[in-house]
Specification:
By secondary structure, this protein is of the alpha+beta class. Helices cover 40% and strands 22% of the residues. The protein has helices spanning 6-13, 17-25, 48-60, 64-71, 75-108, 156-165, 180-199, 245-251, 257-261, 296-299, 304-313, 319-332, and strands at residues 4-5, 33-34, 41-43, 116-127, 137-141, 145-152, 205-206, 208-213, 217-223, 227-232, 235-238, 279-284, 290-294, 339-350. Strand 2 (33-34) and strand 3 (41-43) form a beta hairpin. The N and C termini lie far apart (94 Å).
Length: 356
């Protein structure tokens, strides 16, 4: 058998001897033989393919623990794992890109001398639906905070309630200028710990989608399959990305949006509040914007086109009318799940002039 010293093997696979020694210690890439007397490591040419795969995955920035998983899989499954990892990287990069753009805007913005200010007018409504025995959704709508959590498992209701309760202080807290995403991230960390305290096991948990109002922007946090939408100029935009098995299959081109609606695993989550990292981003608000937060009890049975029509029809009325119209539509479609909605309108109000 042909043996390669660690130096020769390192040159052939483009991994340093130091890296090879580390991968040996981590049982990621073991040498074929270790000399009992000298401790020298020897490899075979047959190991070069795995070594090169490890090198390529490290260049992608993949963590060592995940590389170990990929290397243990057959080629097709390994390719799926790499594809899923890269989709996660792109999503996280998009969050950092949005934060960078926000910071640039903050540092270069010209002070405004507007005579009007923006505020939210809002309403929330939650309904058990027509099938479920209990309501495990929790909603909140306030002058600064809009939130919705959809619990699951036997302790789903306490989990969703704990998540939203941990964020309610944001409705009265002073918001630091230019640091709202950090404030929201810290609050969500507290919400995660609160859910862990009441959930007990991974069988219980909750989604979380929330918007924090700064006066001109909305900071969004999202994890799970509840959704946030923006109605602007008559067009409806979904501003969250579902963390579900079917959404990952759509992202990979293995499933169409139409097929996802009837997929047997359409409710299977990839991430929830205690099992993954939430998405964080900022949205600039404009007068006339209408925001919708909803649990999958609405989006799972009412098409986006119908949601847009209901939000548009209710534009001239109070958000309270809109949320009740949406909940009624879900129940008309069978009401198979709890359904909860928060609707908030961005409106202009006259600025108060200081007394002379």
């Amino acid at each position: 058998m042909e043996w390669l010293t660690i130096g020769a093997f390192a040159r052939a696979c483009r991994l340093s001897p130091k890296a090879l020694r580390l991968y040996d210690e981590l049982e990621l890439l073991r040498p074929a033989r270790v000399d009992a007397a000298t401790g020298y490591r020897y490899y075979t040419p047959a190991q070069l393919e795995q070594a090169r795969l490890v090198a390529w995955l490290r260049r992608l920035g993949m963590p060592l623990a995940r590389i170990r998983t990929v290397c243990a899989l057959p080629p097709a499954a390994a390719a799926d794992e790499i594809r899923a990892y890269w989709a996660q990287v792109e999503a996280e990069t998009a969050v950092r890109r949005d934060l960078a753009a926000f910071l640039v805007d903050e540092l270069t913005a010209t002070p405004r001398k507007d005579t009007t200010v923006l505020e939210l007018r809002y309403s929330a409504h939650s309904d058990r639906g027509l099938v479920r025995a209990a309501n495990q959704d929790t909603v909140h709508a306030g002058a600064r905070l809009l939130a919705i959590a959809d619990g699951y498992g036997p302790a789903g209701a306490p989990a969703s309630s704990a998540a939203v309760a941990a964020l309610r202080f944001l409705d009265t807290a002073d918001l630091p200028a230019g640091n709202v995403l950090n404030l929201l991230a810290d609050a969500v960390h507290g919400a995660t710990e609160a859910v862990r305290d009441v959930a007990g096991t991974d069988e219980n948990g909750t989604t979380l989608t929330a918007l924090l109002w700064t006066g001109s922007r909305l900071a969004l946090v999202h994890i799970g399959d509840s959704r946030a939408y923006l109605l602007r100029g008559g067009a409806l935009f979904r501003i969250t990305h579902d963390h579900t098995v079917v959404q990952s299959l759509i992202d990979e081109g293995r499933l169409t949006a139409e097929e996802a609606v009837i997929h047997p695993q359409r409710a299977l989550l990839l991430k929830a509040l205690t099992t993954g990292t939430p998405d964080l981003k900022l949205h600039d608000a404009e007068p006339g914007d209408r925001y919708l937060l909803c649990s999958d009890g609405l989006s799972g049975v009412v098409p986006d086109t119908t949601i847009r029509d209901l939000l548009t029809t209710a534009t001239a009325t109070a958000p309270d009318t809109a949320v009740r119209s949406l909940v009624d539509a879900a129940n008309t479609a069978g009401g198979p799940d709890n359904v909860s909605c928060v609707v908030a309108d961005v409106v202009e109000t006259a600025a108060r002039t200081p007394a002379s």
